[in-house]
Amino acid sequence: MEGQNKKIITRFAPSPTGFMHSGNLRTGLFAWLWARKNKGTFILRIEDTDKAREVAGSIEHIKESLRWIGMDWDEGPDIDGPHGPYIQSQRLNLYKSYGEKLIASGHAYADPYTPEQLDAWRKEAETNKKPFLYREHRPENPPVWDGSMPLRFKVPTIKKFSWTDAVWGDLSAGEEALDDFILIKSDGYPTYNFAHIVDDIEMNVTHVTRGQEFISSTPKFLSLYEALGVVPPTFVTTPSVMASSGTKKLGKRDGAKDVLEYKKEGYLPEAMMNFLALLGWNPGGEKEVFTKEELIELFDLNKIQHSGGQFGDEKLDWLNKEHMKKLSPDQIQNNIFSYLPKELQKEKLVQVIFERISKWSDVKTMLDSGEFNFITQQPEYDRVKLIYKNSSAEKIKNNILQAITALEGLDENNFDADSVKNALMSVAEKLESRGELLHPIRYALSGLDKSPDPFIIASILGKNETISRLHKAV
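Above: the chain's sequence. Below: its structure in token form.
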């Protein structure tokens, strides 16, 4: 297309009708990646023409969601540029001027009919088992448009449209997809079908990225571009993000979470960007863990898939853990300590916790479940569980006493997991089964059926507390 020689300009144009969920953000991410890949311009535009559905605070929420994941914008509501303003409700005069141009060229007219009249025609069409087409009821002499009535587009030619999509290739739709539609409502606000086209023209957008549900509406858009005498941009139609069930598109009604909930739960923004990028796009090869810079370098519209990516927390958790592993030891410790009370902020505990979590909030889950209670208080437990399988109580008691003797010989200042392990294994290796020593020691120290290994627990508790608990077990 001719626009390919121009500077790439993409946009993300969410509506402020509630929280941002992952499906919305993924579509915006593809637009952002393409702009950054081509050193182009990425515009954030707010489509707030549906005032009845607008939710207070949504614009700030949108901006915070993008900032968190790392999607910066070059022009937008808080970054002035040559195409502003970037909130549609502040551009009403522009839509009105475009509406007047269409009236002058014979491609728009005032809609004089009441909702009751339209409803009666719809019911009549339904009774006759025919599709309702507004163009069959165009007024012969429409009144002068004064803004008090809706302004409706007059489809110039009823024909089959063909177009090329950057993802789906050659597409077409017939006459049934075309009908006269409202451009500007009686409240003075434009419809999506009109406003986004005017804005894309005025902002010189070269690539329009949106979900596949808009394919059926594309003939309407093309007809309007044609009436305005404008060459359409490149359409980049992304596959749907599917809910975890795999049968339905991800949506708020199907449990899609607020993007910022993932931030609260302790996911890394790098992991979320990595995860969303792979929902419907695949660079090829086996690699799945990418940095932001790698995603920008590899992103290619030709690699966007047709099948919808499935949203799954299991995959997100895995990717998040892989990105957590890239953090420095200090970063890992600081994040874990932020969830722990002072008395549990022990360096030796960090690795134990890190091995068992996939996001930072898992630390709080472990804390709330009482998994760390044994560190600050002597555990209460079922004495019978100290006995390993079919061993006798006398044999277990003797094994623990040998372990106490071995541990007493260690330096209190060098009581780490390795030295404890060497001391205990020198006893365990002489037994019929290592479990006859390691099982009762683990249980005596933690009181838990499942816990870190006894060497780590002992190193966290320290020499005196470890030996004290083993004496109690005896």
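The radius of gyration is 32 Å.
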